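re: that chain from earlier
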Amino acid sequence: MNNKYTVNLKTVADQLKLKPIHLSKNYEEAVVTTSDVNRPAMQLTGFYNYFDPKRIQLIGMVETTYLETLTSEERLNVFEKFMQYDIAALVICHKCSIFPECVQMAEKFDRNLFYSDEDTSTFAASLIIMLTRALAKRIRTSGVLVEVYGEGLLITGDSGIGKSEAALELVKRGHRIIADDAVDIKCIDRETLIGSAPPAIQYYMEMRGIGVINVKDMYGVGAVKPETAIDMIVHLERWDDGKTYERLGLVNETETILGVTLPKLTVPVAPGRNIAIITEVAAMNNRQKKMGFNAAETLVEAIDAAVDRGEF
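^ sequence. v structure.
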């Protein structure tokens, strides 16, 4: 997955606890641009017709077993040809041998070389997950992101509609806030969106008439969360007497963000309506639907059955 986003190689190495064998002169500035990884078994045998050096390269037991069949001079030639490419980094996994010829060529061509005790497949899985999240396509949108009963709700609506006030009431009712005003959304796979706050304003909320507050300092760490999956969109709009609003919940409204389709609930706002309670009910109802129970459909089926029996 090549895109415009990058992650520092040092961040990858630190997070995955890689042991450095040789670090290039530009190690601090080196970046990774793809979440794909490569095990260069074919390349070590001399086949380079399809090779992406921008991927992090992993050597495990298969590659090591092959390299052990070669003489020292043959290994030197193999690694010299391999290190001529501007590889993102090479990681030797599975407690495999660190061949001196590999280290020699890494130093000659100034390539980043690391070591990991982890099984190659386990390490590759952890690396791909980490890179996929770091390099995921993303957008920044206006809204408030809260977690209610384990459901991530993106609350949207016009400025001044009451999004922040509803979120603060939810915090007082024991739920958690992730972001206010601006929400950074990442698509980490075809079905999952992860939302967080821009670092500069994390845990801050703007309350008209009061000013800016820090939710973590005011309500404690239990009232906030760094990020959450987005399960549903709750859109607030001003009540329009001329508009017909859904009463049973049989119409399933959706909205697509970064290619992921989410259920959407439009909530009309009017004096006397408690948006926090409505949001709580929306979260619980969404959980029930995901578990296979739809109250509206069950009610309609019951009414239809009663009509058929002449009881309604």
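The CA atoms of residues 235 and 266 lie 5 Å apart.
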